[in-house]
Amino acid sequence: MTPARSATRPARRPTQAQVRRRRWGWLAVAAALGIGLAIGISRIDVQKAIREVTLPLQHDDIIRQQASEKDLDPSMIAAVIYAESRFRDDQVSDAGARGLMQITPDTARVIERLSGGTTFVMSDLSDPEINIRYGSYYLRYLLDHYDGNEVAALAAYHAGGGNVDRWGGADLQISDVGFPDTRAYVAEVLDKQQAYRDQYADDLGIGD
Predict the structure, then answer these.
(1) What pLDDT sits at residue 177?
(2) 150 is catalytic
(3) What pTM was computed for the model?
């Protein structure tokens, strides 16, 4: 029989060439990981930049506060701001509607009267906090007036309550909205409301 090989035979030391190959191998792995991480961060940044352009969100702290105070879905407030001004607080329409939620002076005075305020001045509508507060108050008022019907409330926000009452009031459906631009507006707000809920849940405090 042949003698058994020693179990305690010392391991053979790697040659310098092997050491160099291993070192370069680890460097290659580290470089690959670094490139992968960089690509990942870049992709996230690009996605964030695209989202900020296609679905912007600003003043989320004010939106969360007003949604809480007025018992509104914050994504609805954000969607109305998107549809009205694309989050540009210097917007002024031909009808004189101003600010983020495009509130006319006449509507602002109605809101002031309904809420018991007495200090409204025109320049208030350029203040994002006041503008969102007024717009949120009006949305809450319209939702209550139309028994929680979001289509009716949004149509009234865009075209006035008188038109909504003629179209069906609290029973209004999108297909019943008489003005094509108002129908498109309501559809856009409802679509963006879901988009804000999906993409900005953490920022808007949805699900807290």
Answers:
(1) 98
(2) no
(3) 0.77
